[in-house]
Amino acid sequence: MSSHLLSPPVWIDQPAQLKRLVDKLAGQKRIAVDTESNSLYAYREQVCLIQFSTVSKDYLVDPLALDDLGPLAPIFADPGIEKVFHAAEYDVICLRRDFGYAFANLFDTMQAARILGYKAVGLNTLLELKFDVSLDKRYQKANWGARPLPPAQVDYARFDTHYLLKLRDLLYAELGESGRWNLAEEDFERACETPENNAPRNNNGCASWERAAKQHDLTHRQETILKTLYDSREQIAERMDRPPFKVIDDKRLLAIAQTLPRSLNDLKAVGVSERQLRYAGQSLLEAVNEGEIAPLVSRHRNERPSDDYITRVEALKSWRKAQARKMGVESDVILPRAYIYAIARDNPNSKDQLESVLGTPSWRLSKYSSQILDVLRE
Question: Does residue 47 register a pLDDT over 90?
Answer without folding.
Answer: yes
